[in-house]
Amino acid sequence: MSNQEDTKIVLEQALKGMGFVPNSLYAMAEKPNILGSFAMLFANIRGFSGVETSVLTGLKLVFKNMLWSLKAKKHSVSEVPLYLKNLVAHISSNASGCRYCQAHTAYEAHENGVSIEKLQKIWEFQTSDLFTEAEKAALQFGFAAGSVPNQVTPEHYSELSNHFTTGQIVELTATISIFGFLNRWNDSMGTEIEDLPLAFSNKYLSANWEPGKHAK
Description:
By secondary structure, the chain is mainly alpha-helical.
């Protein structure tokens, strides 16, 4: 079964609500768990007015989303490593200017095995031997995608394709995108940073980081 056939329930709801299926959803369908989670998040934020969605359809979507998530977990070896998602989220959050998310992603990257030296050299990733060619491609993409206006070019995808599958590129894009949501949320709300990421960032990222509006 193709991913588009498997995710038909989401695509049909989009068609019903908008009169067409956005191409972005077809791209997300490469990873059904990402598409399903996005659809539920979007529906809950946007609201359900104007969309005729039965209770049964809603329950089917919840059930399908659970299955997609379990399947993704079962096959996690083919996914982008968590530490690399942390690094990409860190550099895209830097590009967008969110100090709160910079601290969180640096702390989490270290918790997932990234050395302090590597974190402190992240802005030298293009020339540093600490980073593999795959990591460099992902970080370059993350910085371009987190910039405003967006700086991603076809060349970024060409370089990514040398190291990652289409599904992995979708995962990297989804990682940057969810942090785009968090960057705007936390900067707009002025979220107060927690003790652990604050202490970590003050100690190890002090040359390039300060809490700004997120200070206690």
